[in-house]
Write a structure and sequence with these properties.
Bound molecules: 3-hydroxy-3-methylglutaryl-coenzyme A, magnesium ion
CATH topology: TIM Barrel
Largest sheet: 8 strands, parallel
CATH architecture: Alpha-Beta Barrel
Number of helices: 12
Structural class: alpha/beta
Helix content: 40-55%
Number of strands: 8
Radius of gyration: 17 Å
Order of helices and strands: EHHEHEHEHHEHEHEHEHHH
Strand content: 5-15%
CATH superfamily: Aldolase class I
Distance between the termini: 35 Å
Oligomer: single chain
């Protein structure tokens, strides 16, 4: 088995982690979270989303978050944009990287962004053109890569079609989302291998929600076949408001522990990360969901 020496982690806590939070999280808390995550050594921090505030009220302060963060050299602060309006706002806020988000299921696409997969891809094309003209990198997401909350099973060929469309349009990396955490390792490998027949595996990332506790197992499986970029969320925060049952993303701490155990470098300080998980969870009135954070805290 050949494992990578290095893995790139994309921290999505400030966006995916907080977007579904029912209580109001202050802009100051979001900014402090992003600062702390950079202090931990994370070099890609998805900061916010320029989406409709009617659809996702928690992200309504996107411009204020972008205005308030200190941009560190060597750290990317991507933001989600669903359309040209989102791109315009993101550019005005000084974003240097954005992410478009499609799905492999039409039913989910309708619920999440109010259009079919085909319409979403048509919507993204001018976003890619505009971003390129502004010198801004674009990442692509494919939701429901291992199952859809509305449709059920999703064919891996459908995932590959959407991944290819985004890659062909100019996305530099495609993040394959197990939106409702229904994947298991062998199914995950088969899905990735199917997508990798269309998009080079080094251009793929894994985004696993931990609804059924399978995320770390799925990451280990993906590592074994050559994926070396994973989306993570501090404290296991998160969920998609338009995917019932999509609990938190895999906790950054759990993934860092896994990688350290495998001798894989990800450049993150676990102790500081656990402090950050405890801090942000405290801000939300709870303890960190991740077992690694709980264990580290218990041993102190
Ligand atoms: P729509 O209602 O069809 O939009 O929503 P519209 O174009 O008809 O416009 C209606 C109103 O929305 C107008 O305002 C627009 O200005 C406004 P009004 O005239 O009524 O006052 N609007 C916007 N406002 C701010 N920013 C914008 C924007 N665009 C239009 N960018 C839309 C379509 C896509 C906008 C909406 O469905 C939306 O914002 N959806 C976002 C849903 C979302 O953020 N979901 C969570 C992120 S995806 C996710 O979590 C999955 C992921 O983590 C991977 C995984 O886990 O699988 C990435
Ligand atoms: Mg997600």
């Amino acid at each position: 088995m050949h494992l990578p020496k290095k893995v790139r982690l994309v921290e999505v806590g400030p966006r995916d982690g907080l977007q579904n939070e029912q209580q109001q999280v202050t802009t100051a808390t979001k900014i402090e979270l992003i600062t702390r995550l950079a202090d931990c050594g994370l070099t890609a921090i998805e900061a916010t989303a320029f989406v409709s505030p009617k659809w996702v009220p928690q992200m309504a302060d996107a411009a204020a978050v972008m205005a308030g963060i200190e941009r560190r050299p060597g750290v990317a602060y991507p933001v989600l944009v669903p359309n040209e309006q989102g791109l315009e706002s993101a550019l005005a806020a000084g974003a240097t990287e954005v992410a478009v988000f499609a799905a492999a299921s039409d039913a989910f696409s309708q619920k999440n962004i109010n259009c079919t997969i085909k319409e979403s891809l048509e919507r993204f094309r001018p976003v890619l053109v505009g971003a390129k003209a502004a010198g801004v990198k674009v990442r692509g997401y494919v939701s429901c890569a291992l199952g859809c909350p509305y449709q059920g099973e999703v064919a891996s060929t459908a995932v590959a079609d959407v991944a290819w469309a985004l890659f062909e349009m100019g996305c530099y990396e495609i993040s394959l989302g197990d939106t409702i955490g229904s994947g298991t390792p062998e199914k995950n490998k088969a899905m990735i291998e199917s997508v990798a027949r269309r998009v080079p595996i080094k251009k793929l990332a894994g985004h696993y929600h931990d609804t059924r506790g399978m995320a770390v197992a799925n990451i280990y499986a993906a590592l074994q076949i050559g994926v070396n970029v994973f989306d993570v969320s501090v404290g296991g925060l998160g969920g998609c408001p338009y995917a019932k049952g999509a609990s938190g993303n895999v906790a950054t701490e759990d993934v860092v522990w896994l990688l350290q155990g495998l001798g894989i470098d990800c450049g993150v300080d676990l102790g500081m990360l656990v402090d950050t998980a405890a801090w942000v969870s405290g801000q939300l009135g709870r303890v960190p969901a991740s077992k690694v954070a709980q264990a580290v805290i218990a041993q102190r």
